[in-house]
Amino acid sequence: MNRNLAILLAAVLSACAVQPAPRPLEGPGGPREDRRAERRDDRQDARFDANSPWDKLGELWVDGTSDRDAIAVTRGDRYTSVKLVVEHSAVELYDVVIVFGNGEPFSPGMRMVFGANTTSRTIDLPGNVRAIQRVEFRYGNLPGGGKAQVEVWGLGNRRT
User: Fold this and answer.
1) Does any domain span residue 21?
2) Is 144 helix (H, G, I), strand (E, B) or coil?
3) Lowest mean pLDDT among 60-64, 86-90, 107-111
4) Whole-Å CA distances, 25 to 34, 57, 103
5) CA–CA separation, 75 and 58 (whole Å)
6) Which has more confidence, 93 or 143?
7) N or C: which end of the chain has fewer CB within 10 A?
8) 160 part of a folded domain
9) Taking the CA atoms of the chain, what radius of gyration do you get in angstroms?
């Protein structure tokens, strides 16, 4: 009986094909193509930043290994609104906290599910124009999702 069970188990295991999970953001050329695609994306963002009233404040990669992150904003500008952009994969944002230059936190009270390559609504900031120190996130990747890139854009820059 044990021999029959061993043969059955060996047959079942040999019939199963194990495939690695697809690598997110991997183009036909592999990781090198990923880096090229990211450089193209960064150049497009820089052109948009230069030719629109929106400033890219920063970006981060969400890969499912952590559930909270922050983007430090190093620009010395002040903003009236922000917008979030999610690229490459779906992600769920449970909470967003914008920390102003004086340390005061502001949470727009949003819980959003983003599909790949989607944008949030414009989030108006309280007060007149505000310097932003950092933007904090609590998030989770959606099932079947890969690495997502979250970008923060600000509107209304005025030097502090």
Assistant:
1) yes
2) coil
3) 60-64
4) 6, 23, 36
5) 9
6) 93
7) N
8) no
9) 21
What beta strand segments (E) does 22-147 contain? 54-62, 68-72, 78-79, 81-87, 91-100, 105-106, 112-114, 118-119, 123-124, 130-141
- Residues recorded for the chain: 160
Structural domain count of the chain: 1
Range of the domain at 107: 2-155
Tokens of 94: 């449970």
71-84, pLDDT tens digit by residue? 999 988 999 999 99
Q: Return the CATH number at 120.
A: 2.60.120
Tens digit of pLDDT for each residue in 20-71?
333 444 444 455 666 666 777 777 777 776 778 899 999 998 876 668 899 9
Answer yes or no: is 129 within a domain. yes
Token pair belonging to 93? 């944002």
